[in-house]
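Table 4 source record.
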Amino acid sequence: MNKSDSERVRTVIEAMGYQWTDKEEEAGLLGILACSVRQKSIDKVYSRIARWNKWKNNRSLITFVSGCVLPADREKFLKLFDLVFSMAELPEFPNMIRQYGVVTMQQQAMPQLSFAAKPRAMGLQVNSGVMLPPEKIKDFWQLKPTYQSGYEAFIPIQNGCDKFCTYCAVPYTRGREISRPSGEILAELKLLVDKGYKAITLLGQNVNSYGLDKRGAECTFADLLRRVGDFGLYSDKEFWVYFTSPHPRDMSDEVLEVIAQYPCLAKQIHLPLQSGDDEVLRRMNRKHTFEDYQRIIHAIHRLLPTATVFTDIIVGFTGETDAEFENTRKAMEINQYNMAYIAQYSPRPGAASAKWDDDVPAHVKKERLHLLTNELTKHTILYNQRLVGQTLRILATGHDRKPGYYSGMTEGRIVVRFPLDQAVEPGTQLWMKVTSAASYSVEGEVVTQPVGKEL
């Protein structure tokens, strides 16, 4: 999501006449797209702005922050940054710069630009602390991205969340759910495919609730995927379409059935677990049980037998006992995920659980994270070993760290590496026969035509 946001931010700033620089020390405008989802990310923002403000003693410099920012952080940022605004307000950024006293590009050569911190996520309403209606995000969607990749792109289809999970900051930083018009989504998709993009991800905080805020006036998520699939059938281009992130409460068999029908809809599902214990799920306000979750997993295996499954998990949530954590470990053992993004719980100001005691010690959280990581590794290596001997369609993504090798990914987003004598452009699709496997990747050799069974 943050990468997608940053592409629209760059469009606006470069239109003002700024030029990009990779060196912070050369920049006259420095900005951060923040993420309030985890405290560690916000800590990095405070560290960076402290350094930048020291630089102001010696040179002219304008700083800004946007992205996913909680109200508590927003109030502090207003005292530290020159400009604080939301992604929804991005179209107004040029006016903010002019009001700050910097003349327009028609009047002088503008200073250089650098995003000094790795972009993080997206936010909602802020300008000098004034809250704006979430509908302003529609103006943001109208901005054309400055794509930073020639083969992979992101299309925002929905903003905000109505679920109010007790640990989550999203409803307080992005607002309630708003669906982007399907016509805009499909037009952006067609543009990307015509330009040769091969991996396109539909983005939202809760993508499978798409259209529910516009019942009768907009299609459902399953229908949106069906329209994407129909376009793929009639296009002469080969590409894969992904989506993230869905919520188990809104995941239907119809969505999975549509994915099964169309080759361009990638056979990879990201389905957040968060916890494998019903009591923890209740405290998280997830409003589903582990049994409900497992019904979706079984449907994925039934309808999409070749699909890889990724997930998100939180360890050390308030009150999580050893027995409750063990249920999460067992869930990982049962489901044998291809990837899991595991986070140690940290209270987010504004979220309901921030009022509760963060009573799981840090060393226990860390230990549980390591246990789940080890559990994940046991299953990823077994899955990858089963790929040895198979020939897969892959997408080259660039040079690998291993000298003489290139890297890429399968349709299921399994990392691959392969040697090749001649140069290969990122975004090239190839066939690769898998010859060996590691915990989180496979290695192979490029072949000119499929050999054996395609996965």
